[in-house]
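To whoever picks this up:

The parser on our side crashed when reading a file containing two proteins. I've narrowed it down to the boundary between the first structure block and the second sequence. Both blocks are reproduced below exactly, byte for byte. First block:
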Amino acid sequence: MTATDTGLAAEYAAIFAYGAAAVHLDGDAREQAEALDSEHRSRRDALLDHYAAAGAEAPAPAAGYDVGVVADAAAAQELLTAVELDVTATWRAGAAATDPEERRLCLDMYAASAVSLARWRLAIGQAVADPWPGRPQ
């Protein structure tokens, strides 16, 4: 499994989580969740185009993902924060890929996901100052 495969899997999981969580949000958090869901879908589509251009078969999404019980806005915010952190950490790890093209792709996705994480944190009132988002603690 390549870093790109792992990143695509994280994008699939994020799309699933946003579908489960956004219905519990309202106001700015709901608007931002809808915008970020769209961004994850755009990244997924760009990755699928990448595979197609390389003549490779993209990994398929899982049939489902364990998102736990999302019963209210607080649980939805917690889930989406965890998802954004996971996606960012996944792309950050991919930046160590040895193939220059894959490394460039992962770095581009890492930058985009770090911005998404910051926007989400702002939408729910969390601090966004993190010089290396996705870095293990």
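<<boundary where parser fails>>
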Amino acid sequence: MTMWVFGYGSLLWNPGFEVAEQVVATLPGYARSFCMHSIHHRGTEEDPGLVLALDEDPAHACEGVALAVAAGREEATLAYLRERELISSAYIERDLAIDLHDGRRVTALVYVINPGHVQYCGGMPLEEQAQIIARARGGMGPNDEYLYNTARHLSEIGLHDPDLEWLSHRVRALRA
């Protein structure tokens, strides 16, 4: 059986594992937003950045990509993803049904936000998000790079996220 991973943020442009197939997909019941303070990868404990996470919300659906893990690489991929995504336990690992745009429905490994975690910051106004993203920097580089890469890759696969597009323009203006 194929192991699928749902990518909605950095997994879009930096999966970090061998991908056998990539298909545009929709995860019902979740909304993508910059609702997690980043204290490792895109910020520090003293100056947190922001990263994308999925907030459970029955009124929304998140579009991203389904990534099929190469056969025989499932255990190594799971270990890698757990080390990468569960660094601070702000994410919860879930197996959720996603709808592939080619008509298939599969179960995928998805990392969603724990709204009870100290790094959770849902509902922050977009302007405040832009101010943080424009200045923050962490172990994986500047926060704006994460935003730009994610927005660009969504656009390249024909997906539009109005909040990310607005944030990209606003952060570029702030950094100019």
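After patching the parser it read the second block fine. The chain has one domain: 4-175. The chain has a mean pLDDT of 96.
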